[in-house]
């Protein structure tokens, strides 16, 4: 799901409908907020004022040095340019000078997630949570990262805490549903996906919540029930706002498109990265339909194809990693 996430964009950033949709959505306001704070600090300095409380968790009385502000501003710029390695280095320098700013750890965790450094990203979120224990998005991100590491019970605990702190967040329910799905608790996954759908605005988010619900129901032997519900959803006027790819996935799941048609559309994008992203989704949904039809060998082949795309920011990639261990 691009999905992710999971679609919105930071300047030049592609949203992940499926994680990551969730992760990028968290990243956009965070970077925007940090950039705004940086501009305001610079303006106050120019006017002769001193900032005595930098960042969301800076200590009172701690005045940032100009180099720290420069590192933060550089990191924000590099993130918008998709230079995550460069942003990670700039954030490391900023953290050395302002070690009690939780948002710096949070942003570096996102950079490390994009660099597929999931364990290091978890370490960053551990530090962020030590500094700020009541921010829902911190637990949501750490929960998703733990899914990537196969730590499903710990992920569920983090996402449950995120939901306790912010119980109207469709992304936290969707991501906890992913954790339950990967763990093998299909009933719990379906409950969370339904709740995610109920909290989602019409469009891509709602669509992928329905697609994930369909996958669970197919795995439970209730593909016909899932297909009817999804068909009804696709006929709603709000579904007209979906982009062509998102709509095509739904049409494939309800048997209005063939495997060949879905794959052809996945490969039609001009951007090679978009092709790979869409192939990951196509391979995964083909696998689940084959599995539901009793073609386990074919399902296994396409689950492996989805994994081989290495689109590690997509929810479908994580589901494929979990499902390939179960298909027999």
CATH architecture of the domain at 201-328: Alpha Horseshoe
Dominant shape: globular
Number of strands: 1
Distance N to C terminus = 25 Å
Put simply, the count of helices is: 16
Which structural category fits the helices and strands?
Answer: mainly alpha
- Uncertain residue ranges: 2-26, 49-68
Beta-strand content estimate: under 5%
Structure notes:
The structure is a single chain. Helix 10 (204-219) packs parallel to helix 12 (244-253). The model is unreliable at 2-26 and 49-68 (pLDDT under 50). The protein has a domain at 201-328: Tetratricopeptide repeat domain (Serine Threonine Protein Phosphatase 5, Tetratricopeptide repeat). The protein is globular and about 55 Å long. It has 16 helices and one strand. Helices cover 69% and strands 1% of the residues. It has helices at residues 20-46, 66-80, 84-97, 102-114, 118-131, 136-148, 152-165, 170-183, 186-199, 204-219, 223-234, 244-253, 259-266, 272-292, 296-308, 315-323, and one strand at residues 3-5. It has 328 residues and is mainly alpha-helical.
